Amino acid sequence: MQAHQVDDLDTAERLYREVLDLRVAQPDALHYLGVLCHQCGRSDEGVELIRTALQVTPKHPDAHNNLGNIHKECGRLREAEACYRKALECGPQHHNALSNLAVVLEAQERPQEAFEAYEKLLRQAPRYAQGHYLLGLFLRNHAQNLEHIEQSVARFREAYALEPRFVQALEALSVSLYVLGRTDEAVQVYRDWVAREPDNPIPRHMLAACGGAEAPQRAGDAYVRDIFDRFADSFDEQLLHNLDYRAPQVLVDVLGTVLPAPDAALDVLDAGCGTGLCAPLLRPYARRLVGVDLSGGMVEKARQRGGYDALDVAELTAYLQQPGAWDVVLSADTLVYFGELGTVLAAAHAALRPGGWLAFSLEAEEGEGDRVTLTASGRYRHSRAHVLHALERACFHDIRISEDSLRKEFGQPVRSWVVLARRGGDAGPASAT
User: What does the DSSP 8-state code read for residue 241?
Assistant: First the structure.
């Protein structure tokens, strides 16, 4: 268990198996080896091991909860719900199981039941900071009016008061304050945070996002890495189930209109692969499918999901310095962390083979001019004119920019651009549709 806790998974697995050689049905070894197998991408094996442990100790709430976590992270929400309810039968005060139950109810679009579960959690554990934080996110994600955003502010304040190292609550608090138009308060939260942690890239970037400092040309590597390393464990859950995230499917559908029928013949780069949501969609087209991301935590999740021939941890613009390496480059909601797009699009053009396609998504900025805005979310919005001009300067052809909604924020759809462009020759005029 000590090896497991410090992520020395090879040693932990060897020792768990030694225990099981000595005592075949030792339930703790079965349980924790099951968790480890899931972490290593062997989720089906993990499920069977924990089920075997539960045959020995059927009233073990932690094992039921961890079995639920595997089902949840594999997208089997009904099975996860059943496990969490069983954990609560065995241990009615199991706060993690109740918290997880609320999350999967929310993910199944059963918001009233989820809200009731969050409220029950906080009645049972009023000093549970994570519970206050999750309820705050729920209120903001499902906000139907400003009062719900106000209520999220109270939850985030309480979470941070209970756990002063809980910086996610502090960040969420500032975003809610900004949405309410209480910009000065949001800025002050970040200024206080910067004063306490001057080397922390998160409050420095978010201070600029709230207008308290000059906006950088792009989000810094340290900011992006820290945000997504922290977010890796809950990324799929939040985006897919709570925010109706659709970018991977929409982008691959658009690519399908210009690519030949899927026959595993193309070299494809998933640029900003995150946890690997695009892999199963791109795999039918790919002879070789590579994912790259700045966050090691995200890449590890993508490795567990599988589907890639290779995965790399690297900054995107630098990674694209591979002339003529790819037939397709897809980037789902990664370029939202770049302000001016010219440099990264020029690198993508060079990395594509002649006739290769680039597909990416962005958040849309209103207005007709060439505009880029850093928003309170920490992401950039781009005007259509900026996207078009950057692609033209990078010598892309057949430029297609369409509008869609690829996610929700604060309960509302986020206006987005879905962009497709082709590398022609080394130069030439681009056409826009």
Answer: I
pLDDT digits (tens, 9 = 90+) for 304-350: 888 999 999 999 999 999 899 999 999 999 999 999 999 999 999 99
Helices (H) and strands (E) in the chain, counts: 21, 9
Q: What percent of the chain has pLDDT over 70?
A: 94
Please, are residues 252 and 262 in contact by the beta-carbon 8 Å criterion?
no
- If one compares 178 and 26, the residue with the highest pLDDT of the two is 26
Tokens (6 digits) for 260:
């030949």
Per-residue pLDDT tens over the stretch 90-132: 999 999 999 999 999 988 889 999 999 999 999 999 999 999 9
For residue 295, what is the enclosing H or E element?
Answer: none
3-state secondary structure 152-171: HHHHHHHHHHHCCCCHHHHH
Does the pTM exceed 0.85? Answer: no
Among 406, 323, 421, which Cα is nearest to 362's? 406
The residues, ordered by sequence, that sit 6+ positions from 276 with a Cβ below 8 Å of its Cβ are 270, 291, 301, 302, 303, 305, 306, 307, 308
Contact present, 114 and 138 (Cβ < 8 Å):
yes
Domains for the chain: give ranges and CATH numbers: 127-214 (1.25.40.10), 230-423 (3.40.50.150)
Q: Shortest CA distance to 69 belongs to which of 45, 100, 91, 48?
A: 100
Q: What is the mean pLDDT of residues 223-241?
A: 70
Q: Is 24 exposed, middle or buried (0-12, 13-18, 19+ CB in 10 A)?
A: exposed
Q: Which amino acid is at 363?
A: E
Enter the tokens of residue 277: 């949501």
